[in-house]
Amino acid sequence: MKNITKGYINGEFVTLHGTQIFNLINPTNHQPVGQVTLGDEEDVQRAIAAAKTAFKSFSQTSVATRIQLLENLKQAVNKREKELIEVMILEYGGTRQFCTMSLQNAIASFDNMITTLRHFEFQRKSGNTFIQLTPVGVVGIITPWNSSNSFICSKLATAIAAGCTVVVKPSEMSALQTELLTACFHEAGLPKGVYNMVNGLGNVVGTAITNHPDIAKISFTGSTVTGKQIARSAVDTVKRVTLELGGKSPNIILEDADFEQAIPQAVFGAYMNSGQACIAPTRLLVPKDRLETVNQLAKAAAAHVVVGNPADAATNVGPMVSEKQFERVQHYIQVGLDEGATLLAGGPGKPAGLEEGNFVKATIFTNVRNDMRIAQEEIFGPVLSIIPYENEEDAITIANDTMYGLAAYVTSANEARALKVASRIDAGRVCINGFKHDPMAPFGGFKQSGLGREFGVYGLEEYLEPKSILL
């Protein structure tokens, strides 16, 4: 069992002023794997002071210097990729498939930002005016537990590219992962104060970061409820805010699609990251007159979903991150039954032989109405709702009938038709004919799925302020 007692402030691991202890529990078997000491307001103040001091010089660094730092970070994280994957499986319970992909994305985020930086114009002209894009200042980075290190790497890479310094508050449930990642950053030789990290609770450390006047910007990934709280607090000091929040992503299967391929793909897609993914396509919209065929295909696909030990390469769905999250998913499964949806696969309780961990059965409801809670509220677990539609127009209406707008998916034999449908979906990212990722394309949500964008040029500009100089 590992005992984590330090944060990372001004280029070194330091003992925290906070004394509260948080227990780290393996979600696969409920065995303790560590303890972490949580920081407090005083620790946050020290971290912000270090970042503020470092910003004075770091904001003036050249593009070449920042590119070299990003390259150093990439090499340091890449060197310990296997360790980072294993600790993520242990602490988070993510499947080996997902954790491997997540770490690969984390490493690639440095390369992606290097590519962006090489072609980015920090000095521009608009009319007769000289425009400088200047770093916004000290950035508070607040990340969730469902892909912790990947989020930290991506946000840090963007901040460094912009010339910003950061104070990171990761999820307290990700402390083992964060400590190892921070060791990588330390080995990379970042200038003192550029990266600072304080473990702690959201209502203590997160609040202290959000309320501090020396934090110029908040970059947050997490729930919509917490995002709203951060936005409200940030208003007092008019902080810049980037929020990547929840989702209830529709997956529209048009009637001309290859159902034999599209439906199994849809089922496995809904269970990405064991269902604990904001972009998971958890609403499957299908033609009403094909519902029986869809039900048969979906049920057959669910039978091939492997729920089990996340360390096994064949596992598709691991445990929920905590008992609290397990209970949340169980509650929604019962809600689906109470609302009158038809249970097609899975259901309440744990799979046989997996009683010791936070495991949920791979669950599918069909004959779901879009006004049901299981179709409107983010469950964050392996629960798929199949919703029949009358025609294409009805499918679009159902897809947009949600407070969320993070991601969406459209499948059709006719790409031009799919593109036309995609253009009418209220979502920040729409994938056509499969699950795709482009780390250079802007990522973020419409409606209550967030504010601002991440990745590439659009993400970098969120960390910069345009200054007009009239000559």
TrEMBL record:
Active-site residues per Swiss-Prot or TrEMBL entry: E244, C278
GO MF term set: aldehyde dehydrogenase (NAD+) activity
Family per similarity comment: Belongs to the aldehyde dehydrogenase family.
Organism annotation: Chitinophaga eiseniae
InterPro entries the UniProt entry points to: Ald_DH/histidinol_DH, Ald_DH_C, Ald_DH_CS_CYS, Ald_DH_CS_GLU, Ald_DH_N, Aldehyde_DH_dom, Aldehyde_DH_NAD(P)
UniProt entry tagged with the keyword RNA-binding: no
Top-level taxonomy: Bacteria, Pseudomonadati, Bacteroidota, Chitinophagia, Chitinophagales
Key words, A-Z: Oxidoreductase
Protein name in UniProt: Aldehyde dehydrogenase
Record keyword Cytoplasm present: no
Reaction equation(s) it catalyzes: an aldehyde + NAD(+) + H2O = a carboxylate + NADH + 2 H(+)
Stretches assigned to the Aldehyde dehydrogenase domain: 20-469
GO biological process per UniProt: aldehyde metabolic process
